[in-house]
Amino acid sequence: MTCAILFHRNGEESHKKDPYMSAAQKYIPVWKDEYPIHSYQVDVSNNATLGVLCQLMQESAWNHAEHLELGFSHLNRKNFIWVLCRQLVKMYSFPKWGDMIQVHTWPTAKDKLFCYRDFRISDSVGSAIGEATTTWFVIDLASRKPQRTDSYFHVDLPEDVEHVFPGKLHKLHPVSSTANTSLVQVTYGDLDRNEHVNNVRYIDWILNGLLLDYLKTHELKEMEVNYLSEAVYDDEILVYSEKKEASNFFHSLIRKRDNTELCRARTAWERKSK
Question: Which structural domain range is residue 214 located in?
Fold first, then answer.
């Protein structure tokens, strides 16, 4: 009997036979988790923040990676770790406090150095409210050097795998030196277990750098991010935001002490209906 490990909201695991898996299949190709949206996960409009949704997608990616024997517990034996380098999220509507959402995720492809993973966020009846695509690689923690996928990735991907968006993500343009600037400092609460800033905090810093009036009157529809470098405790980060068109911004995070660019991002917005 083939069994799958399913992760529930209370953190417990249960082993259930998956009706879509044949006896010959070892892995679940598409992973699904369900999450409630809590009061502390919404903004002034009662919408779950993009940072929260990215955290939930990341959690499901970790769950699926563990199931595929590509997760933290497996790569840690080789002193390897996953690194997110590019991400595009498109939101069609945002869940609100009390809503239950589903996150589906699956690996879509790999090449010599990079692995690709897509996501779909659905409401309680299964209608898509958001989609995302991501690009990852693995580094050796000691050397900080990227590792070839054939040194750790052993899963055969389906030939007819779905891609939520066509093509691959590319390098974003830098912002100009005249962009609006704010300053943040890395604190203990920004750090993950590897003692560097989690990628979701970059998203929060970028969005927090925009004016409150704009955030209250506009809804985020797309966010694309290039993650370029790490930030650590006590770093001072300059957050640049430059409006390119009526509904588009380009952003950059720069470490103040050495002028290292940590990430670039693009956001697209839509004015809220009154």
Answer: 180-271
pLDDT in tens, 201-231: 999 999 999 999 999 999 999 999 999 999 9
Contact 43, 22 (CB under 8 A): no
Predicted TM-score of the model (pTM): 0.88
Estimate to the nearest angstrom the gap between the alpha carbon of 152 and the chain centroid: 21
d(CA 88, CA 69) in angstroms, rounded, equals 25
State the Cα–Cα distance between residues 133 and 32, nearest whole angstrom: 16
**What is the count of structural domains for the chain?**
2
For 174, the token pair is 């830098």
Pair (17, 139) in one structural domain: yes
Joined together, the tokens standing for residue 237 give 């980060």
Query: Using one digit for the tens of pLDDT, what is the confidence trace for 243-268?
Result: 988 889 999 999 999 999 999 999 99
The answer to whether the beta carbons of residues 37 and 45 sit under 8 Å apart is no
